[in-house]
């Protein structure tokens, strides 16, 4: 079997703890499915700022570039929040997306049975919710020119939102393809009644839609989408949108499932390369205590197997193992009703690895 | 008593129907409270496009400019959705905001007792929710330079987001003042970890916060705010944010109350001038049937009385009359459990006018 190279950037807070369990599960799948991985670790985020003076050291970038996939824990924490821009973990995150050409972020928002009641939405509204947000990740206002200048009314700040038709087309095509493998419904979200970039976005969607005749497309204005996610979450299948809107809507969508601590994500570029990470953050408040929930990271591995490597069988097995362990009533503190009975991070990782 | 001039722009869809009831209520308050209004009507939105070839005719603008306050119904509808930019109702809306200097949009999101169950949120989460979004309305990406150009990767679209410190300061100060009259909590929402305009915004909030020592300030990133509105809506008091984020978050906040059809809004400039309108749209599907709910528009009059004219007593009376009529079980179709028993628009208006 071919050896696959995995760049591991555990990052800050609970990152190293949850990533360790994901690797444990990967190693178990090596034995069971005859897979072979080579792991190379890199510093990233706050820990890289502390040790190397930059959130994204060149060495880490190279580890990622020679890998087939990247497994990321989480970055950031209060310690670095007041740093100057160059010395902030987020800057590393934007840098790695751009440098690795990860133009697409897939964020499935699903409801876990055991967390049904954790949502603030009524169960009957949530029923059947299973959507995925496809967010453009390397363009728009995140990466356009930014500067300050003196104007007639004092200091001015400027951000520029730019999209070219090629960028829009590649992300929209990807979203159509994702929709084709799901319930074949695509909601394209923009603000075409105000923004020029949104008008280009909408034109592009309309131009290429005929190439995907089996997919039903609707255009939804971003403000309306923020409402409809609350009103009829289960009616969405795939949502595709630009970087800034995607940041907001994917978090709203994740939160309304009540399952945010269990959700995984994939950031993809051209070809099969991808970066996989849990949606939850670095949770500095519980870092180092061995109580974090590793499931979102373990499920990110399942995404990696499916999307980067085509290891469908092993991906299915991981998802089944997680379900089985949860169905048997095993819980980490964040999802436990009785905290006293809660498992540690490594206990949960062991259970899932053994259930494979 | 001094005569106050009201510009009435009923607009499209159900606009004329709900505005008529609001005027009915205003006339009743003239008798009861010794107020005196002079109404001048102007064409606006789709109807102005049809009759005058522009969504915001010069004449309408002048009616607004010589008025003390503007009462707006709603604009837009499918008929004009595919028009070119200059011939779209939204363009008129952006134009009127800019021309009248309405830099601040206040959108209270409250829960009406009779609509508690209409929310998709669990009642225990919604309990006590009473917040107001203060949205900057004449700056940011809405009004910055927009254009197309040819680039290395094909056609490009550009939107520019600009804020100067004066614009930020005036809206933030207003939000602090709103907070001082409420529960004294201000959440300032930005994306300071990515945007330069957000960094200017945050610096400005921090600089002027000491002038309002009684107000507790928190900075919330926009993606996090979209989540926290779902998780802990009742913990928010006043939310202040820039134009684009405010568009999204105010709609999310309104929807989560379940009361969106009953919510009113105010757009204010320097001085006491203001434009008042219901949050709901033109509802073309039920236009002309006499079944629309006029309550949001009637409550917009209460906001006008309080914020523009200082008619606190009459404002209280309107709000009390609405409550009394609802408590007695009267409902229009949108809020009725039994549609067969639903009142017409004019019946609801009459009841409220008589209850004053
Ligand atoms: C940390 C921040 C820059 C980042 C973003 O806005 O993209 C985060 O919110 C995310 O969604 O991954
Ligand atoms: C119609 C549109 C231009 C407008 C806006 O985005 O401001 C609307 O959504 C609103 O919130 O009043």
UniProtKB/TrEMBL annotation, chains A, B:
Binds 1 Mg(2+) or Mn(2+) ion per subunit. Coiled coil: none annotated. Its cofactor is Mn(2+); Mg(2+). GO terms for biological process: L-leucine biosynthetic process. Pfam families: Iso_dh. Pathway: Amino-acid biosynthesis; L-leucine biosynthesis; L-leucine from 3-methyl-2-oxobutanoate: step 3/4. One of its GO terms (molecular function) is 3-isopropylmalate dehydrogenase activity. Keywords: Amino-acid biosynthesis, Branched-chain amino acid biosynthesis, Cytoplasm, Leucine biosynthesis, Magnesium, Manganese, Metal-binding, NAD, Oxidoreductase. Substrate binds at residues 97, 107, 135, 223. SMART domains: Iso_dh. SUPFAM superfamilies: Isocitrate/Isopropylmalate dehydrogenase-like (SSF53659). Belongs to the isocitrate and isopropylmalate dehydrogenases family. LeuB type 1 subfamily. This is 3-isopropylmalate dehydrogenase. It comes from Paenibacillus agilis. The lineage of its organism: Bacteria, Bacillati, Bacillota, Bacilli, Bacillales. The gene is leuB.
